[in-house]
Amino acid sequence: MDRENVWKNYSDKQITELERINEEYKDCLDSGKTERECVKLAVERLREKGYVSLEEKKNSGEELKPSDKVYAVCMGKSIAAFHIGSEPLERGMNILGAHIDSPRIDVKQNPLYESEEFAYLDTHYYGGIKKYQWVTLPLSLHGVIAKKDGTVTEVNIGEKDTDPVFTITDLLVHLAAKQMEKKASLVIEGEKLDLLIASRPLTEAEGLNKEEKNAVKAKVLKLLKEYYGMEEEDFVSAELEIVPAGKARDLGLDRSMILAYGQDDRVCAFTSLFALLDVPEVKRTACCILVDKEEIGSVGATGMHSSFFENVVAEMIALGGNESELKVRRALQNSKMLSSDVSAAYDPMFAENFEKRSSAFFSKGLVFNKFTGSRGKSGSNDANAEYLAQIRKALDEDEVAYQFAELGKVDAGGGGTIAYIMANYGMEVIDSGVAVLGMHAPWEAVSKADVYEAYKGYKAFLCNCQD
Question: Which of 212, 244, 276 finishes a domain?
Fold first, then answer.
């Protein structure tokens, strides 16, 4: 089934709305380069629209009622927000779920060292990356430093025009004959992804101890003390992430695309959030959940495998005055979900890895994957045909452009999402998202038209997919 390029049929009014949504999206990408930053941004947006924390609601002693808007945060890295509908919660919710972690490089807990008068941070990469893509780029450092006295200091170095940036070095091509004979996975090894952060030694005038052999490291520690009140031991309780420095930019002479870091999966996360914020009153409770750790298996307290979401739903059932484990189970089983994650866009430069009839294309709308997984659908959620029909009806009512696709050729590889985890509750789930070029690269590309159609599609799902 051929889908038409949606740019051909947009009205001037739609183009204006498309550009507004995409400018807002780029701002969110710039402000949310880590899962913590995404949650902080989401809370700010939610509170602007009248949402209150579930804890505030509990402490007020009020019962949860239709039209209420609440959210809950898990460890600053995952968030679930709800617009309460007129139907009882046990009848189910319409859920938009996406992840806000992205492939990156993390700083280890004992990272700072000096070698030949260069200071480095030792690192460990996070998620599936091509390691050779991360060298010689301007990189920034984001995260938090938690100290023993209970204070938590935010770190963001490399994003302002006046900030320094960091880099990971590579071997010059003149000496790289043996390096270039290696397999791509070995051209840059994980232990060589250390971040270059300084080369200037501390001087005696600045307080250098004459016995100190690592004067450059000493200079770094002096600066960290001045800027953050930080001792070297504080690295142990810090979470510092290395990401590409720079803002999201329009891509192409026609400005039809966006090039930015972290669009897997923040292109789905932010459009899901926008959709929730813009829904009117609803029958079925509308929910947006943004989670951490998908890139490493959805594990841990902030990943989708945790009990965070289930616990929040239990709290909401209790706040409705009807505390019941059975009602919690009913609320989850009766829910419908779009597991919103990106798809691989058909790339003519690598056409041999795609089956064209089953590929996602730029500017042809929101992408649905009936199943993901790899090869024999291993590790996938395989959505019911009846649910697909409901989705089609909901989107067609609001004239949303959409397409169906698979992730490359059957035997080429594969990937997974959070869909199968939520399907364990017995709810209806299907994967949906935006087509991306260069997925998991430091800089990824999407179509502005697809961002717009994703927003429209997610909003249509929340409003129209009713029993």
Answer: 244
The answer to whether position 284 is within a domain reads yes
Q: How many Å apart are CA 410 and CA 98, to the nearest integer? A: 24
Residue 334 in domain:
yes
> At residue 413, does pLDDT exceed 60?
no
CA distance 394 to 387: 11
The alpha carbon of 20 is separated from its chain's Cα centroid by a whole number of angstroms, namely 21
> To the nearest whole percent, how much of the chain has pLDDT over 90?
85
- Residue 221: give its domain's CATH number: 2.30.250.10
pLDDT at 382 over 90: no
0.90 exceeded by the pTM?
yes
Query: In which band, very low, low, confident or very high, does the pLDDT at 321 lie, cut at 50, 70 and 90?
Result: confident
Same domain assignment for residues 198 and 327? no
Confidence at 411, pLDDT banded by 50, 70, 90: low
Residues 115 and 202 in one domain: yes
Predicted confidence (pLDDT) per residue in 285-305, tens digit: 999 999 999 999 999 999 999
Asked if 69 and 49 touch (Cβ cutoff 8 Å), the reply is yes
Whether 309 contacts 294, CB under 8 Å: no
Select from 389, 258, 388, 364 the least CA-distant residue to 1.
364
255 located within any domain = no
Give the whole-number percent of the chain exceeding pLDDT 70. Answer: 96
**Which domain, by its residues, includes 458?**
6-102+261-464
Question: Could you say which of 201, 218, 244 is where a domain stops?
Answer: 244
Read off the amino acid at residue 111: P
d(CA 292, CA 146): 19
Across 341-355, 362-376, 395-409, which has the greatest mean pLDDT? 341-355
d(CA 399, CA 392): 10
Q: In terms of C-beta distances under 8 Å and separation of at least 24 residues, what long-range contacts does 412-416 make, across chains too?
A: 412/353, 413/374, 414/372, 414/373, 414/374, 414/375, 414/378, 414/379, 415/372, 415/373, 415/374, 416/372, 416/373, 416/374, 416/379, 416/380
Number of residues in the chain: 467
For residue 254, cis peptide bond before it (omega within 30 degrees of 0): no
